[in-house]
Structure formats: structure tokens, C-alpha cells
Amino acid sequence: MMETQEMMENILSYFDRPKCGPAELSQLQAFVKAQGGEAGGVKEAVLEMVGQGKLVLTQNGRYATPAMIGLLAGRIQGNAKGFGFLIPDDEEADDLFIPANGMKSAMHKDRVLCRIIRQPQNGRSGEGEVVQILSRANSRVVGLFDRPWKSAFVIPDDPRLGQDIHISHELYGGAKHEDKVVVEIIKWPSGNRAAEGKVVEVLGNKDDPGCDVLSIIRQAGLPEVFPQGVLDAARAIPQEVPEAAKQGRKDFRDWTVMTIDGADSKDLDDAISIKRLENGRYQLGVHIADVSHYVQEGSLLDQEALLRGTSVYFADRVIPMLPPELSNGICSLNPDVDRLTLSCIMEIDENGEVQDAQIVESVINNKYRMTYDGVNKIFAGEEEMCRAYAPILEDLGTMRELMNLLLARRERNGGLDFDVPEAKIILNEKGRAVDVVLRERGISERMIEEFMLAANRSVALCARHAELPFLYRVHEDPDKDKMKEFAQFVNAFGYTLKVKGKVTPKQLQELLEQIQGTPEENVINQVMLRSMQKAKYLELPLGHFGLAAPDYCHFTSPIRRYPDLEIHRILKEWLHGKLDEKRVKQLEKAMPGIAQQTSQAERSAMEAERAVDDLKKAEYMMDHVGEEYDGVISGVTQYGVYVQLPNTVEGLVHVSALDNDYYVFDEKRYALIGERTRKSLRLGDPARVRVDAVDVDLRRIDFGPAPGWLDAKES
After folding, report:
1. What is the pLDDT of residue 713?
2. How confident is the model at residue 712 (pLDDT cuts 50, 70, 90)?
3. 587: closest CA among 481, 697, 467, 690?
4. What is the DSSP string of 331-351?
5. Are 279 and 546 in contact (CB under 8 A)?
6. What angle do CA 464, 470, 474 make, to 5 degrees?
7. What is residue 622's three-state secondary structure?
8. Contacts of 436 (CB under 8 A, 6+ apart)
9. Cβ distance 97 to 118 under 8 Å?
């Protein structure tokens, strides 16, 4: 019997035929039957497709694809000024501008059908209007409860929603003026009528410590609290490894195994060991917490972990993928206790090439809980640290040697090594940002990164050779047009990037080496990153462009990433010979859904983390209004230039503040050009700015030109 998804694809194939027009339901039923399906399920499938915007019911009762009648399906990207853009489902279609009077009550992220009323021309985007709202995306909204008089509204935190939500008196839910709340929409906007809702949760007064971050968590829909059943399941797991669980595993408890993590890390999921072999090669052991031993497939713990997809790390808290009894307890590779692991034991030659890799179930005992800072001090020769860790100085020295070989190998192969500055936000006891500093990326951080990359590559290669159903970490080749634009961009700085054929990672790595240490390094790094595809999880081994790796996966962090946990399960079943034909088919069917869910969870987590960072950076700059800073132009638009400070804080110098001239946006040169002075403000140029204003709620920092900046020499 044809499944629903297969039937939908079959129905769509009807419309792919030459000179095919809208069809009656009976015609679709006959077509599906001729293809070997059952006509009985066609009506339900067609109705579902209409609801998804894949088909449209015309006025004469026939069905057509949206494209056949000049419609586009997609999601609305809203704007605070009331207009929006349609982001089409069809990735090859251009975005469509939707003016405010064409939004027809659609809100940010709603799925809609739009009619195209003007095609793109002369570089201008096409224009359209919403004709049908397929599904609403904002059933719950986070915002500020505003009750200046008798009437009350919730002002959404996300300005892209574009409209306030009216709250009747009986639906206040105990909220007071200027509380942050979660409101459930009970009546969608229509015409000139505002949306109506009821308060379902009061987060606290907007000035309460932690309320700002909690608002972002709720807005992102992140599941902060574990369901009781999940907590009960976690608490039922013993916090010591029983002897029976250690049987049949490789026993590495007499090896010198250590962890190297941040000082405040509690979820330690990777440990390492090193040995110099008689043949001169290195034996690198990467030992990863065997979370799959405790989180069984299909269990409550597993369902919750898949829903979350990843742990989310904020400046003031962590939302873990697994309850603390697992993430910080029995799964964490804490020092001086036995732990179950899945180990990748690699033999690496003097060229940094992995000549052999074995994946084994194991048991370890972490002998040393090291920190990045502590190991960096040892590498710097700090006497006190060297004395304290004298027994492992030789091992650390050997690890450093191996790191250099692995780095050299990656550079030879063209793997990209971005050195984009990352901020660390310092909070006081009330959760307020008091400093923004750069995170150090020392030798120890690079060392662990290279060791994890080696293990991830080795596991992915093994999986592909064994033809396992699998989850790969995929980074596809960059879009040719975007690479051409990037080549033009770097050419403005005097660098050359040839893009006639396929751009290789090695070409980009050579460019990164050329710009190292230059004022424009950070900007070119960021533009290069934006010019490439986003990495994602996929069931197919399409390779990783950025790492110049034909095979890559995520194996090393199963405490905080679901794909790693799923990979562990598959590897263990393979090691035990349990992957029969039936099980392989079951896994192959499950992988695409898991890949899509975990990729989306990762994107949501990154957006929330970025939102909190922007919020805290704005909060920090509130105390520095009027002060002057040196920075670099990090973005250029027709409405002004963005300037990034050395600590990664970024603000906008609006074009209206550039009062020494009338500036025109030159898109090809990524610059604003003064009409009278010909003064050029380009990406990467130095800029001295003054902090003029900060809006923490909007996470916006406004800079103005400091005296002397715009007086510099002309371009």
C-alpha cells in the first residue's frame, strides 16, 4: 500500500507532465490507481497537500500547483515597519517583497501563499501579496505587558511580529504593568483588528535578574524544564558503574587518560590518551562517554534528547540535552571514577595521517581532570604547574608534537582554519554584564580540537566503508555566484581569488594565510563564512568542504549532541553484529528525520545563544554611553555602516550621523562613498566611534563618528 508521503509525490508527478493543467479529484484518483496506488486515500492526501500549500483548490473546483496559477508558497519574514518578505519553499525562487497593505494579517514566520504582482527586474526584488495563510507560527508570544490605562496589550519582544496583542481584563493572568509574559493568541488579527490573547505565564518584572534571558528562552521555544517522567528515569540510574557493565569491554583503566576542558565545564564527554609506538608512530586514544548505554532507543530519555537535539549554552545558564544525573553524573568522565566509553584508538604516522583506527567499547578511569588554562600554563613553562603535573609532562609534550603534525596535515589538504574572535561575557552576581572579553584559543584548545577532528574523520570513514546507515556532518561546496561576489570583495583589498572553475578549500586557506595579522583579517573571515553553505546533518556522505574532509561526522559529544548519541548506537550494533537487513532498513528510514530535526534544533540553539550574547553586549555598553573606541567597519548597507570593536561588540553608525557629506551606497565596492569628498567607508576600514545610544530591549547599539574619523584622507 502506498504511504502518504509517497502518494503525495505521486500526485505531484501528475502535474509535471507536459501541457498539464488543473485536475479534478477523479483525475488524480485515476492517475494514482494507474501508478499502482489505491484511489481511496487520494482525497485525504490532496486535502493535506492543500493545507501545506503544495496544491491549491481553484474557483472551478479543480486542483493545481501554486506555480500553475501564479502563486508562491513559503514563510513570511516580518519587519517592524509592517512589511515583510516571502522566503519561498522553492530554494531556487527569489524572495518576494510584501508591502504592508499586502500582508493581510500574516505575521513573522507564518506559512502563506502569495500572488506575484510584480516580477523581479533591474536588480529590484519582485513584489507580491498574501492570498492565504496556510499555518500560523506564533501561537505563543513573549513580550512586555503594557497597561498604561484600563486597556492592556502585550508588546512582542520580536519586533518582526509587527503588532501588539490585545489582552482582555479577565485574561491578565496576574500580570502587572511592565512584567515580561508569555501570551497565547486566542484570536488572530484580521483587517484592522489586533490579535487577542491571554497571559499563560508571568516571567517576572522586566528588570528582575535573569528575566531577560528567560524571555529569550521562551521566545525560542526551548524546553527548559524536563518532564517529570524523564527526571524520574534519570534518577533511577545508579551513579556508579556496576561490575557487570564493565564485562566484555576493553579495559583501559591502567592507561594514563586525561580530560582537558574549560574550568567551569561539568559535562565531560571526551578524554584522551597518548603513546609513542616502537615504529615511531603515535597511538592516540579518544575516549567518549558511552551515553547510549544509559539512554535506550525510544525511551523517555531518548525522546526528550531528540526533541532538544543539543545542549544550549548561555552566559548565565545551560539548558542541557540530558538531565544533570546523566550529563554531570554517570555519563560525565569525572576524575578517579570508572566510566563506560566508546573509544577510537588511532595509529598516526609522522605525516599526521591516520594509518589505522579501531572503534571499541571500553572502560576508563580519568587520571587527570585538566583545564585549558592549566595546560597552556604548562606549555608556557610555568614552574609551579610543571611541578604539580610532572608525571604527565612527557605525555603532554607528545600530544603537542602530534597536534602540530595534524595541523600541518590539515593545512596541506586545504582545511580552513578560521580565527574569528569569540566573546566571553562576564556577569556579576545579579546576572548583569560587567565586561566583554575575547576568549583565548591557546595551544591546548587547538590540540583538543585537532584530536576530536581526527576521531570524527576516522569514525565517518569507517562507517562509509562498512556502508552503515549513518548521520554525517555535511558541509557542501559553496555556491559559485557567492564565491564570485566574495572574490570581488577580497579584490578590493588587493587579494586575488580565482573562481573560474570550482573553488577549493586550499585556495581559501591560502587566502586566510595571506590576511593573517592584517586589519582586514576578521572582516574577510566573516564574509568568507557568510559566503559558504551552512553545515548540517545528513544521511549521505557528501563530505565537509571547510575541513577538506571527504568523510566527517560528529562522534565526540554525545552528552550534548543527539547525532553523536545516535552514531554511538549504530556503531555498537555494528560491533555486535546486530545490523541485519531489517534493522538496516529501519535505520535508513529513520536517519533523514533525525538529521532534519537535529539540524533545526542546532539552528534554533545558535539563534538563541546569539540573541542572549547581543542582549548582554548591549547591557554592558549601557554603562559606556559617550565613550570612544577604535573599531573596524564590519558591515556596509545603504542606511549606514556597522562597526565592530576589538571585543566583538558591534554597533551601527547610521548614515544620518555621517554629517560631513552625503554618502551613497556602492554595492560592488562594499562601501559608502561621499559625493563631495569622495571619502570611502569600506568593509575592513578602521573607524573611531562614540557610543551614542543603547536599546537593550532591541539589542541595538548606536555609534556615532568620533572626532577625527571622517576627517581622514580621501579614498
Report:
1. 54
2. low
3. 467
4. TS--BTSEEEEEEEEEEE-TT
5. no
6. 80
7. helix
8. 423, 424, 425, 426, 616, 617, 620, 647, 648, 649
9. no
| DSSP reduced 3-state for 198 | strand
Distance of CA 578 to the CA centre of its chain: 34
Strand partners, 118: 127
Pairwise CA distance, residues 673 & 587, whole Å: 57
**In this structure, are residues 165 and 156 in contact, taking their beta carbons and an 8 Å threshold?**
yes
pLDDT (0 to 100) of residue 715: 44
Pairing of strands 650-654, 640-644: antiparallel
Distance CA 172, CA 182 (A): 11
Amino acid (1-letter code) at residue 253: R
DSSP for residue 69? G
Task: Compute the distance between CA of residue 487 and CA of residue 503 in angstroms, rounded to an integer.
Answer: 10
Radius of gyration (C-alpha) of the chain in whole angstroms: 28
Beta-strand relationship, 140-146 and 179-187: antiparallel
- Is the confidence at residue 432, as pLDDT, over 80? yes
Q: What are phi and psi of 44, to 5 degrees?
A: -65, -40
User: pTM of the prediction?
Assistant: 0.88
* pLDDT computed for residue 234 by the predictor: 98
What tens digit of pLDDT does each residue of 337-362 get?
999 999 999 999 999 999 999 999 99
Q: State the chain's mean pLDDT as an integer.
A: 92
CB atoms within 10 A of CB 511: 20
Q: Using one digit for the tens of pLDDT, what is the confidence trace for 267-282?
A: 999 999 999 999 999 9
Cα–Cα distance measured from residue 146 to residue 125, given in angstroms and rounded to the nearest whole number = 37
Are the CB atoms for 218 and 201 separated by under 8 Å?
A: yes
For 226-243, how does the pLDDT look when each residue is reduced to its tens digit (9 = 90+)?
Answer: 999 999 999 999 999 999
For 270, residues 6+ apart whose C-beta sits below 8 A from its C-beta are 259, 286, 287, 288, 289, 333, 448, 452, 556, 557
- Torsion angle in degrees (nearest 10) through CA of 84, 188, 308, 144: 80
Residue 23: all three cell numbers together? 485536475
CA angle 359, 361, 366 (to 5 degrees): 105
The residues that bridge with 357 in the sheet, in sequence order, are 346
The tens digit of pLDDT for each residue in 146-189 reads 987 778 999 999 999 988 999 999 999 999 999 999 999 999 98
Grid cell listed for 126: 519582485
Cell representation of residue 585 = 532498513
Longest CA–CA separation in the chain, Å: 86
| Percentages of the chain per state (helix, strand, coil), in multiples of 5 | 35, 30, 35
Q: Give the residue carrying C-alpha cell 566571553.
A: 424
* Residue found under cell 574577510: 524
Phi, psi for residue 159 in degrees, rounded to 5: -65, -15
